[in-house]
Amino acid sequence: MNYKGKKWVVRPQDPKTALQIAEALGTTSLVGQVLLNRGFGDIEDAAQFLNCQLADLIDPYVLHGMKEAVDRIILSLEKKEKILVYGDYDVDGVTATSLILLFLRDLGFSTHYYIPKRVEEGYGVNKESIQKFAEEGVGLIITVDCGISSVEEIAYANALGMNVIVTDHHEPPIKLPDAAALINPLLVGCTFPYKSLSGVGLAFYLIAGLRKGLREKGFFKEREEPSLVDYLDLVAVGTIADIVPLTGINRILVRAGLEQINVNPRLGIKTLLEVCGIQPGHVDSSSVAYRLAPKINAAGRLSDAMRGVLLLTTDSREIAEREAGFLDVENEERQRIEGKIYAEAVEMIQSNGIEKDFRSIVLSSADWHPGVVGIVASRLMERYYRPTVLLCLDSGVYKGSARGISNFHLYQGLARCRDLLLEFGGHKYAAGIKVVPENLEKFMERFESVVREMVPEDGFTQVMKLDAETSLDALGMEEVSKLQGLSPFGAGNPEPVILIKDVEILNPKVVGGDHLSFLARQNGVTIGAIAFRQAHELEHLKEKMELAAVPEVQVWRGISQVKLRVKGMRPAGEYD
């Protein structure tokens, strides 16, 4: 069932068990089948997945290092010591920084923050910033979404009389920093059962632990105790943007956070939604991932991520509108630069026969923008389905971003090239690296051989997994609404993709420059459909087509309708 390099695979079907699950949970057989596909064959587990709530969260003190972190922060608060939150420049880091900053301020404490500039300073903690913090009288640094690899930098902070608390969800190195506390569920010996928290998820757990510690000390006897729900909008945005699995704890946090955004968004998020043209009440994981998050990310990619923190923490309408407008303009510039780099990279791949002869993609240029190569690497990975590394030359060193595929653990692959790299860090699907020019060719050769060794020959075909086959008349409003009850969708809980065969395509037209809009008709039932970035399919349409589509309920001017978002299409009957 291959079509244009993608393999369509319908997941194993079990109608009997799917019906049993559906009847027990008061839902449809299609939802029951999707739950089975997601690994919820046990009715209790399926019910827990559908009805998860904040009360199901694990105690923050199960996290290794939480008690030490809380005790050290409370000591700082008692001593009125200057605290600084040090974050990363992506959306996860920006929201995590904003969350801890707001929580400490809501407790009545003046707290400061810093996010390094991607181009000038690079990722993570750096000694120049630490020196400046010491001169400014900072006593405690709390890192979010970074720090687990900053051994020398944290030793330097210690030497200058400062303590550092590290919260970081990235893979820990062999040698760990000598911090006052290390909070990372991936640490050896950490018994916290859920290992896939985002940086902002860990930050949320830190404030939950801190609130509990302060409560035990009687801190809230004479002041109102902050509600943790108020910070979940930030958790949802950062978690969705960081593409961690939306399962377990992440699902609980994101689900509650999206509800918070839709019911009572903070000023900065509300203003950004207005810029995006999204009405509160209609925000889902997709609108966060593809419309909201890129604007927050844009400043960190091109200029200063601290503008994103300012937007998310301000109470001033004037500042919110100014910063949201700035992020919108930055995102437009990011898109322009991204398009240029993408076109150049595709030309390199095609002219050098990389797609045909290589199992990895490693490209470099002195002219590429370091803040954008990561996005382009993701797009190239999706197009060619190869582990992809894009590098730009900066101050005599090649640095950039890498993206992995499902059959290849990127961090482990890079670890086998560590002797050729100045630095590297990340996780299975995304990483950052630095390499000196004289090692670039050796790295390309080594990385290619590592990929060939770790990935089987059939592991370079992208698989589109379909949850079930159904007909258009089975996709009524009630059925699709219940299907959407499985949301939020994202990594680890993908949108249900349905196979629909023998579909007539009516009134096809190109919209938005690159998208294909049409009506899908089958057995007298007609549903509107949109196929994003598939305008090229217009010339390949046949009398009957097969669609791989996500059914969803869309609301337009107060009217709800079932629509199809088409992930793929192919001529009917040719791929059985």
What do you see in this structure?
This protein is of the alpha/beta class and 576 residues long. The protein folds into 3 domains: 119 residues, OB fold (Dihydrolipoamide Acetyltransferase, E2P) (Beta Barrel); 273 residues, inorganic pyrophosphatase (n-terminal core), CATH 3.90.1640; 109 residues, Diaminopimelate Epimerase, Chain A, domain 1, CATH 3.10.310. Helix content is 42%, strand content 21%. The chain has 20 helices and 19 strands. Strands 4-3-5-6-7 form a 5-stranded parallel sheet, sandwiched between helices. A 5-stranded mixed sheet has the order 8-9-10-12-11, sandwiched between helices. Helix 4 packs across helix 9 and helix 13 crosses helix 15. 45% of the residues are buried. The mean pLDDT is 94.
What's a quick, concise take on this entry?
The chain is of the alpha/beta class. It has helices at residues 15-25, 29-37, 43-50, 66-79, 91-106, 118-121, 127-135, 151-159, 199-216, 232-241, 248-263, 267-276, 285-302, 306-313, 317-351, 354-357, 373-384, 410-415, 437-454, 477-484; strands at 2-3, 6-10, 82-86, 111-114, 138-144, 163-167, 181-183, 361-365, 388-394, 397-403, 423-426, 430-435, 462-466, 468-469, 498-511, 515-522, 525-531, 545-556, 559-571.
